[in-house]
From TrEMBL:
GO terms for molecular function: amino acid transmembrane transporter activity. It comes from the Bacteria. This is Amino acid transporter. One of its GO terms (cellular component) is plasma membrane. It comes from Notoacmeibacter marinus.
């Protein structure tokens, strides 16, 4: 239980830091409502399972030691974030009307699109791979049972889902979204710039070690 508690605390602190995951959940909850925000959180949680799988299978170590693998993951992730951010900036337009209930959408987003945004934002982030790997090296050893390693991976995923779902539920409140509507164009551009900026930062990330 001590190991699981450690994983929970470290993951929660990391999730609370500003990053691309926080940006996409916030944007989707504000623009498309509660369901889109929560489904984006589900996608992020699924992406973390990918990183946990890397750590358990030893792929994370291989990536950390291979310049080629590291750069492939880094550039794929950077390209996705930059494309997503620039697309948001390009499509930003002034919202009309007033939100009358929490289900009203400024820009309706299908469930698969919300899941896809969350999943690929997290799964293609090589920094998340190394964060997960760093957690596993602190709580697991070669002798750690596979079942416990799987529990560690599930803990990282569930923790992020709970945190980002809470963010989505708060930001999808009608009063919050109504305030967002008055600044929609500029906020959409800001979110786009932030996400693209995270992509640029990722592109310049250096291999650990």
């Amino acid at each position: 239980m001590t190991g699981i508690a450690t994983v929970f605390v470290l993951t929660l602190f990391a999730a609370m830091l500003p990053g691309p995951d926080f940006a996409v959940v916030s944007r989707n909850a504000l623009v498309s409502g509660r369901r889109a925000g929560v489904l984006t959180a589900v996608g992020i949680a699924a992406g973390l399972l990918v990183h946990a799988g890397y750590a358990i299978a030893g792929i994370g170590v291989a990536v950390s030691q291979s310049i080629l693998l590291f750069n492939i993951l880094k550039w794929v992730g950077a390209a996705y974030l930059i494309f997503l951010g620039l697309s948001m900036i390009h499509s930003a337009s002034a919202g009309q009307g007033t939100l009358v209930d929490e289900g009203a959408d400024l820009a309706p987003m299908g469930p698969w699109q919300a899941l896809r945004w969350g999943f690929f934002t997290n799964a293609t982030n090589v920094k998340a791979t190394f964060f997960t790997l760093s957690i596993f090296t602190q709580v697991a050893t070669p002798e750690t049972p596979l079942s416990l390693k799987l529990a560690f991976g599930a803990t990282t995923s569930i923790t992020c889902f709970l945190w980002f779902s809470a963010v989505a539920l708060f930001l999808s409140r009608p009063s919050v979204r109504r305030a967002y509507l008055s600044l929609k164009v500029w906020m959409e551009r800001i979110f786009g710039a932030l996400i693209a900026g995270f992509g640029v930062t990722l592109a310049f990330a250096r291999q650990p070690g």
